[in-house]
Amino acid sequence: MGANAFEQAAWFENQPDGVVYAGKTVYQYKGGDGAATVQLKEGTRAIGAQAFSDCSFLTEIMLLDGIENIQSAAFANCNNLEKVSFPATLTNIESSAFLNCEKLTNLQFPDSLHTVGGQAFAKTACLESQPDGLVYAGTVA
């Protein structure tokens, strides 16, 4: 499913403010300024493309076990994001997922992480250590 696929659709407009899900995937954060810390519901499998992009209020996100994929630009331009807790089940972080998250300085990557897309962490200061099982990192990861 593409980013903003349901923008201005009746289904999306009728969703309450907060985290909007499409099945087991976080589709988008809806509403104005939200909580500084967001915790997702049990059973979530993926964070959709641009789901939280430009959420400047967000300072911390807790990703639960079961999440395997963070899609492209999911948290791009979250300029106040300081802390992300990655689950042991995470295998893939797509391109530009955390692009321009300048306050993101320290991450603990799970051993399950297998691929990181290009520019996933561009313009952050968080790539001090990488998991042993990482087999691909795109340019300027």
Fold and architecture overview:
By secondary structure, the chain is mainly beta. The protein is 3% helix and 21% strand. Strand 1 (18-22) and strand 2 (25-30) form a beta hairpin.
Low-pLDDT regions: none
Q: Give the total of beta strands.
A: 10
Taking strands numbered 1, 2, ... along the chain, how are they ordered across the largest sheet?
A: 1-2-4-6-8-9-10
CATH architecture: Alpha-Beta Horseshoe
Radius of gyration: 14 Å
Query: Ends: how far apart?
Result: 24 Å
Gist?
This protein is mainly beta and 141 residues long.
Features:
about 140 residues, Leucine-rich repeat, LRR (right-handed beta-alpha superhelix), 1 helix, Surface_bspA-like, LRR_dom_sf, Leucine-rich repeat domain-containing protein, LRR_5, mainly beta
Give the helix/strand layout:
Elements: H1 10-13, E1 18-22, E2 25-30, E3 37-39, E4 46-47, E5 60-62, E6 69-70, E7 83-85, E8 92-93, E9 115-116, E10 136-137
Parallel strand pairs: 2-4, 3-5, 4-6, 5-7, 6-8, 8-9, 9-10
Antiparallel strand pairs: 1-2
